[in-house]
Specification:
39% helix; 28 residues; mainly alpha
């Protein structure tokens, strides 16, 4: 789902780690 993916990316952006490390981080 692109909307869920977009939300996860928006959540990950404030972090300092690369996006690929947020695959199981997510926003729940």
């Amino acid at each position: 789902n692109l909307i869920q993916l977009s939300n996860m990316i928006k959540c990950a952006i404030p972090g300092s780690r690369p996006l690929f490390q947020y695959t199981d981080y997510g926003c729940y």
